[in-house]
Amino acid sequence: DFGNENVELVRSVSELKFPKAVILGNHDCWTTQQFSQKKKDRVQLQLECLGEEHVGYRRLDYPNLKLSVVGGRPFSHGGNKLFREKLLSA
Length: 90
What we know:
alpha+beta; 3 helices; two-stranded antiparallel sheet
C-alpha cells in the first residue's frame, strides 16, 4: 500500500528510472467504491501513472534481468473476501 489513494506518491515512484513492478493494495482504493464515468478518480489516476508497471492479475517480464514478476489480487486486504469488487471488474 502507498496509502489512502496517494496519487503524488505513486507518481513519484512511477518516475523512478529503474525497472519496477507495482501492485496497488486496499489502502490505494480506500475511498473509491467504483470507477466514475464522469471524471477520473484517484484510483484511475494511480493506474494511469503506473501504466504497464501495475501488475495486478498479470505478468511483467524483464528479459535483461531474466526475471518475470506475477502480480496477484490488486486492492486486496487479504483473506478470502474481495475488497472493492467493482474495481476488479472494470
